[in-house]
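A quick aside before the break. I want you to see a complete sequence-to-structure record at least once, exactly as it would be stored in a machine-readable document. Don't worry about memorizing anything.
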Amino acid sequence: MRAVVYHGPGQKAFEEVPDPEITDDGDVIVRVDATTICGTDLHILGGDLPEVLAGRVLGHEAVGTVNDAGSAVHTVGEGDRVLVSCISACGACRYCRESHYGQCLGGGGWVLGHSCDGTQAEYVRVPFADTSTYPIPSGVSDEQALMLADILPTGYEVGVLKGGVSPGDVVAVVGSGPVGLAAIMGARLFSPSHIVAIDVADRRLEAAKQFGADVTVNNAMTDPLPTIQALTGGLGADVTIEAVGLPETFELAVALTRPGARVANVGVHGKPAALHLEDQWIRDITISTGLVDTYSTPMLLRLLATGQLDASRLISHRFGFDDFDEAYDVVSRPADTGALKVVVSR
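That is the input. The structure line, written in tokens, reads:
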């Protein structure tokens, strides 16, 4: 089969690799019908995750059709349309029992495209299929479901829920890329009084308005703090969500808060970021970090099925499997291309 293979920092190729095989009774083999490219894949190519070894098939998001199933798989079977989650869960360890699947001790967590071969391929082996794949409800398209493999649960769980967004809050989202937009969508479910989207690209700020931000600030031109202070009686945001993963965006997220606020870091950081405790020790702020656990995926699927979420709005570009190189190029230059999420399908 063909797959996108990582060959070290800055190097990848769409090439022939062996077909995956079932290696455990809980595995399924899924024919990938659609996949996407995540910012984390770009971090891997940038050398930010040295634990990813050369030869790894990239990708951790897919929808597809079960081609074969191990004898211990009970929830899905051959021919079923499934969502392949970015997080695999053994279902039995301490963290899985607490719904912290991203921290799985039993061989799960983020493994696809990380410690085992991923989804940017014609076929993928999915471990722990009973707890790591989800049947796609009738009426939900492949493209919509694909947005629940990673991006929507990440923005919702690591951003909105860990940030404790509540009715009436002023929420500042630093970064209006796909994860930031997903966080804006999720925050709207909790009726904040204002959502302030902050980015350096006007095209992404326009997208943020469509996803529910009522105030936007281009921080390449304007300091966002006075705007937020004007909305909060001079205090600062109740919640800030960092959705970029750069030292300066993390420091900005902290600086925009009021005393007693919550900072939810969602961005993947490849470099150290300063935490100025000489300023913050007295301000009673809470900072959270995390890898998505995907415990919200069944609920988000229900919202898709009933039309209460429109995940397809996150998709900006579509490609065929022969066009992975072009898709990566588009995703790597979002300021020029306007890329949000891309779909690569058969």
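Two observations worth writing down. The first helix runs from residue 39 to 45. The chain has two domains: 2-149+293-345, 153-288. We'll return to this after the break.
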